[in-house]
What we know:
This protein has helices spanning 6-10, 18-32, 41-57, 60-69, 72-78, 91-100, 130-135, 276-281, 340-355, 362-379; strands spanning 122-128, 137-148, 164-165, 174-179, 182-187, 196-197, 210-221, 230-233, 249-255, 262-264, 267-274, 283-289, 292-298, 307-310, 326-332. By secondary structure, it is α+β, with helices and mostly antiparallel strands.
Amino acid sequence: MAKRDYYEVLGVSKNATEDELKKAYRRLAMKFHPDRNAGDDSAVDKFKEVKEAYDVLSDSRKRSAYDQFGHAGVDASAGAGPGGGGFGAGGFGDIFDSVFGDIFGQGGGGHGGERVYRGADLRYDLELSLEEAVSGSTIKIRVPKMVACKTCNGSGAKKGSSPTNCPTCNGLGQVRMQQGFFSIQQTCPQCRGQGRIIKDPCTDCRGQGRVRDNKTISVKVPPGVDSGDRIRLSGEGEAGENGGPSGDLYVHVIVRDHPIFTRDGSDLYCDIPISFATAALGGELEVPTLEGKVKLKIPPETQSGKLFRLRGKGVRTIRSSTRGDLMCRAMVETPVNLSKRQKELLQELDASMQSGGKKHSPQASSWLDGVKKFFDSMTN
């Protein structure tokens, strides 16, 4: 019986990628596996056919020969007879590991060797003043974390000794379990995947290879950071296990409240109390900025809540080269602790303004007119 086209067997196009071939093989191998089709000889034949097709197309040299000469180009190397020469010298377990290894515990790491583990990432909340956040600075912090044991240099073994290969898995960290037609690798129960046994552990780290310590780290804070920004320090997290790479340290910025300024992105806001007389007659005030004092002109008849913009007196964020503005909000302050004479003067002033009608208090007059119309509409 003539062999079917390998691409047709796997259900892929002739320009299929390696990933597409692997996905197709996984799906069909699971579908026709003998363990899942007990007593079905046709499923066994299809399984062998799928395996043969993948064995050829996953090998770039064999695939090239097959694309040029068809089955004749690969029969010599793949083996003759039904099923393409069975499972070959390496056995089915080898191709199973290469394709399904990442599902059944292989982790994509291939065979053998002591397992290493990357250290955990750490978070540190760094509080800054507004001035530090705006100008940038270098700040030293102390971070509690797991570091490599200096006594044993991270090996976990007592000084003068060294770990030995696990006798159960021969240092591979995994053992092979035969389940029917499948050959599956599992974590070694004796060394728990480490691939080594420490007979004489270090007294300082108790065989762990790591100890907890406080490390002082210099953090360079770039100018313009704000609450919520994050600074990543590569390799400053916890030490890895078995010589694995260290994790990263993520410094989260928290800017403390300022007694004068409120920040909104690149703009700053501040409230400026002004006297009743200054609001009415106008004047000039000194207002603070992060770089010193500046003069602010208050025009006559300024109302409470009016915003004055000082361009370029805000901050420059880390995401923009443009500097924001300082927004000064005028807050008319009601005088307190008045003397008898001051009260008399205010009463005289109030009487004088009321005699002038609406022209001195247009907002109050407009509001009173609105109130009157509201009550008139309710009575009608």
